[in-house]
Amino acid sequence: MQRGTLILEDDSKFNGFVFGASTNATGEVVFQTGMVGYTESLTNSSYCGKILVLTFPVIGNYGVPDGKAVDDFGILRWVESNKIYASGLIVSAYTQQYSHWNAIESLSSWLKKNIMFLVFMATTMAQYQPTVLITTQQAHPWTISVFNGLNGNVLLTFKSDAPVARHGLLCSRDHIYAAAIDRPSIYVWKLNSRNRDYKKITVAGPINSMIFIRDSTILACAIGNKIFLYKLDNGQHLITLSAHIRTINHLLFDEDQDCLISVGEDNLIHRWNIEEISPDRNLDISPSKSFQGHTGPIHDLCQISIGKFHLLLTASSDLSVRLWDIVTGKCLCTFLFPNEIHSICASSFSTTIYCGTDTGTIFIVPLQTLTTQFGGIQHQNPTITIDNNNSKQLNHHQGSVISLRLSADEQILYSGSLDKDCVMWDLSSGQIRFKKSCSSPVTNILLAKIDTDDINEGSTISIPFSNFSNETHDEVVSHTIATRNGSMQRPISDQDSIKFIPMPPVNGESDESASMAAPTFVQMARLLLEQQMNSS
Predict the structure, then answer these.
(1) Does the reported pTM lie above 0.70?
(2) Which residues contact 396 (CB under 8 A, 6 or more apart)?
(3) Which of 52, 39, 47 is nearest to 110 (CA)?
(4) Domain residue extents for the chain
(5) Residue 402 pLDDT more than 60?
(6) pLDDT tens across 37-60, in order?
C-alpha cells in the first residue's frame, strides 16, 4: 500500500494511504458534507480541478454504478457527466468491500481508470494505536498474546492445543485465524466476544503459510508444495496451484497486480495471476512468471512500491536479499549480507528495508543511497555488499530474528526472535521503546486493529464459512467446536482451553492511549473550515 501526503499552502502536511491512481495533483481543497453521492460529486463540473474532501466517515461502501447507463431520455442515469472533473479525493475511512444492487466496481478501481488519486487519511503517528499479536513456539498450551503496541500492556490471550505456523497467523475485522503447524487445522476465534470457544477447520494438511486475497474473500493456504484456494463465505475449494517441487515457505498477495506470490525451499519464486482462477473451469493453472536467482531456500518476502514500480524483496539462506520487478520478473539488485536473512520488511515511504539475521542483528538498508536511476532503482542487477558503511544495525536479540513488522506510520519496528523477546524499536532514534519477554521463542508478530472495549458478553461465535472441502477425497469436512478431548460440540464452561483475559493497567496507571489526540482528518477539516471563515 502506497503512502500519500496532502500539502497545504501554509506547508501543513497530512499523511495517508493511496487507494486510487498513483499520481500527483494540485488544486483547491474543498469539503463536502453529504452522506452519499460521491460518484455524482466527482463527475460534477463545479468541482473541476479541485481536491474534494468528504466528511462522511465511511466512503466506498456502495461501490460505483455503470457510468454509461442512460435513462429513457438518453440522459446519464447515475452520474452527472461522462468524466471525473475533480483532481483528487480525500476521505477519513475507505472500504474496498462494497454492496449495492447497481454497483459494478469499487471506488478505487474506478478512480484508477480515470487516473485520479484517493487518499485515506487514517491517523498520525501519535494517534496510531496498533494491537500486536504474537505467537510462541514450545510452550504448552500454545499462546497467542494480544497487547497494546504503544505501551506493551497485555490485552487478551488465546490458548490452543497446537503450535501456530510461522506464517500462519491472520486477523480480519471480526476473526483471528491461526494455522497449526503439526496438524491439518485452522483455529478461528471471534473477536469482540467473551465466548471462550474456538472453531477448528480441517484442511488438506498442515499449513506452512496462509494469506487473504481479493478483499479477504478467498483464503490461500500453502500445504506442502501446493497452494489450496478456498472461498471464505462457504468454504468452497476453488483450485489447487502446483508448481513448486519442495515445501512452500511463504505467500504474499499483491492487490494492485491481483497476483499471488509464492516462495519455497526449492529456491524459486512463482507469480500466479488470480484473474485466471475460476471454480467453473477445471484447468491446470501455471505461474505467469517464475523468478530464478537464489541458490538457497527463501525464508521471507515483502513488497515495496517506489513511484509507479511494484517491487518484491526476497530473503534467502544464500546470504542474499534480492529486489525484483513483480511485473517483468527481472532481478534489479542483489544485496549480500554477512549472515542469513530470516525475516524482512520494507518502508515504501522512506525506501528502506529491514532485515533480521540468524545471529540477532537487524540491518537497516536505505535503498536510495545504494541504487541509481530506474525510477530510483537500478536495473542492471548489481551486487551490493552490505556492511557497517552502507547500513545501520539494531542490536539486542541473541537468537534468530524470524519476524519483523513495521507500523503504519513507518516509525516503529517490531521484532520477534528465537531468544523469546519481542522488541519495539523507535526508528528515529534506534532505541528500544519496550521489550516483552515470552516463555518460549516468538514465531509470529502481526499488527492489527482490535477494539478490546467492544466485547459483548454472551455473543455466539461464528465464522464466515460453513465448511471446507477436502480435495483428496472430494468430501466435505465440517468445522466443529473443538474440545480438549476432541469431542464434537459441547456447552461453554470455565474449563475451556481458550481464554480471553483482559488485563488491568500496569501499576494501576491509566492507559494513555485512550487520551490520544483527535484524528488527522478532524484536524484538517477544522483547519479548512477556519480558512474558509477567515477568507469570508
Answers:
(1) no
(2) 360, 421, 423, 432, 435
(3) 39
(4) 2-124+517-535, 125-448
(5) yes
(6) 899 999 999 999 899 999 887 788
